[in-house]
TrEMBL record:
Cellular compartment(s): Cytoplasm; Nucleus
Domain Essential protein Yae1 N-terminal: start-end pairs: 74-112
Superkingdom of this protein's organism: Eukaryota
Keyword Ribonucleoprotein: no
Matches recorded under InterPro entries: Essential_protein_Yae1_N, Yae1-like
Protein's recorded name: Protein YAE1
Lineage: Eukaryota, Fungi, Dikarya, Ascomycota, Pezizomycotina
Keyword Transferase: no
The entry's keywords: Cytoplasm, Nucleus
Region of interest: Disordered: 33-68
Function noted in UniProt: The complex LTO1:YAE1 may function as a target specific adapter that probably recruits apo-RPLI1 to the cytosolic iron-sulfur protein assembly (CIA) complex machinery. May be required for biogenesis of the large ribosomal subunit and initiation of translation.
A single GO cellular-component term on record: nucleus
Organism: Cylindrodendrum hubeiense
Record-linked Pfam families: Yae1_N
């Protein structure tokens, strides 16, 4: 019976154990590759997770902030450009319209004040009535009344109906002024007073004519009621 020498068995066992140990040592570095994070091959790589996530759910926080800032800047630039192109035209139109309405209101008020000054001191009811009309006209023909929101919209357009002048296709500024509710009311009152005191309206429109002081049959300070009134020469 043949027995293997003991020293040879020990050498073979050592050799086998050495081979197993070497295999374990070779496999361990392969699992811990130092370039794993660089190329994103590992499951914990943030680059790999970014490509695996849905595109709509991933949006850098700075991108939203920049988008908001650029949108706001573009809106402001657009508003500034629109103001530059339309501000002057809007101012010219609004100024002309406001001047037409204010001029007509001032003419009516001035006309009534002139009549009231001419008949001041008289004791007849018509003269007293003119003084009362002047006080009412000063309130209703004031800027705060004729330009209040009841008659004008925020964009400067009128809220009341404005028919065009006869023979005209478009509405003019004078049409807007004449159609104003307060202007229409006091135009009718002024026409009544002109007819009552027999005042020639054309004299007031004549800028080249000579203005004369009012002439009455009786003195202005007289308390007697005149039998007949003559036209007042201005």
């Amino acid at each position: 019976m043949h027995f293997q020498p003991i020293e040879h068995m020990a050498d073979d066992t050592y050799t086998a154990q050495g081979q197993d140990t070497y295999q374990v040592e070779v496999d361990t570095p392969a699992a811990n590759d130092a370039l794993d994070d660089v190329f994103g091959s590992g499951p914990s790589s943030p680059t790999a997770e970014h490509h695996d996530a849905p595109h709509s759910a991933v949006h850098p926080s700075d991108m939203r902030r920049l988008q908001t800032e650029h949108s706001t800047a573009g809106y402001r630039e657009g508003v500034s450009a629109a103001k530059d192109s339309s501000m002057q035209a809007g101012f010219d139109e609004g100024f002309s319209l406001g001047a037409s309405v204010g001029l007509r209101a001032g003419q009516l008020l001035g006309m009534l004040e002139c009549i009231a000054d001419a008949v001041r001191g008289r004791d007849d009811p018509d003269a007293v009535r003119v003084g009362e009309l002047v006080r009412e006209a000063r309130e209703e023909l004031s800027i705060g009344t004729i330009f209040k929101p009841d008659y004008w919209a925020e964009d400067g357009n009128w809220k009341y109906e404005v028919p065009p002048s006869q023979g005209e296709d478009e509405v003019l500024f004078t049409d807007v002024a004449e159609a104003h509710p307060m202007i229409r009311k006091w135009t009718a009152i002024a026409d009544e007073q002109l007819a009552l005191w027999k005042i020639d309206r054309t004299i007031l429109d004549d800028e080249t004519g000579q203005r004369l002081d009012s002439v009455m049959d009786e003195p202005i300070a007289s308390s007697a009621v005149p039998i007949a009134r003559k036209p007042l020469d201005w």
